[in-house]
Amino acid sequence: MNAAVLSKIASDIEQFGWHCLHVYPRTGEEGIGFTYTIGVDATFGQPEIAIFGLSREISHSILSDCVTSIRNGGPFPLDVPIADVVNGDYMVQFRRVLRDKLQDCFGTAIRFYRDKPFSATVLFWQNKQHLFPWESDTPSVQAEGLALV
User: 4-25 burial, b for 16+ CB within 10 Å, e for fewer?
Assistant: First the structure.
């Protein structure tokens, strides 16, 4: 990773308290895109947040709302359904990323934090049947996130 990218991340964190990183497969590669925060742990002492399978715009909007909520009131509880995070009548749930899985998807955050430990969560949302991905047999764009928790 070049110094300009790390400089941009540091600048965003200084200005906004966090940086939003979008990770999508290259043309011809398989996989689901995901988006995650960098700097939430450093700025607010709360875990970074990742979201899988949504567009850049929707992911950024949801993560921005999450950071605003953290800024205004503190952490999201883990492993319990929460309302009023996404539009509509859908619940979300935050699950902690296993420490040995951080390198699988959070490489840029690892390079940013260097030797400083940080934690991360994955934000999961319910499908149209109001089921979380672990409650449904239907394939989910959130499956890659499930492999981290």
Answer: eeeeebeebbeeebbbbbebee
- Which residue blocks in 17-81 are alpha helix, DSSP H? 40-44, 56-73
Q: What are phi and psi of 28, to 5 degrees?
A: 90, -15
| Helices assigned H by DSSP within the chain | 3-16, 40-44, 56-73, 102-105, 107-113, 143-146
**Residue carrying the six token digits 């899988």:** 52
Collapse the DSSP code of 135 into the 3-class scheme (helix H, G, I; strand E, B; otherwise coil) and give the result: helix
Q: Which residues pair with 120 in a beta bridge?
A: 48
Q: What pTM did the predictor assign? A: 0.93
Going from N- to C-terminal start, the domains of the chain cover 3-146
pLDDT tens for residues 71-126?
A: 998 789 999 999 888 877 889 999 999 999 999 999 999 999 998 999 999 999 99
Residue 63: the pLDDT is: 96
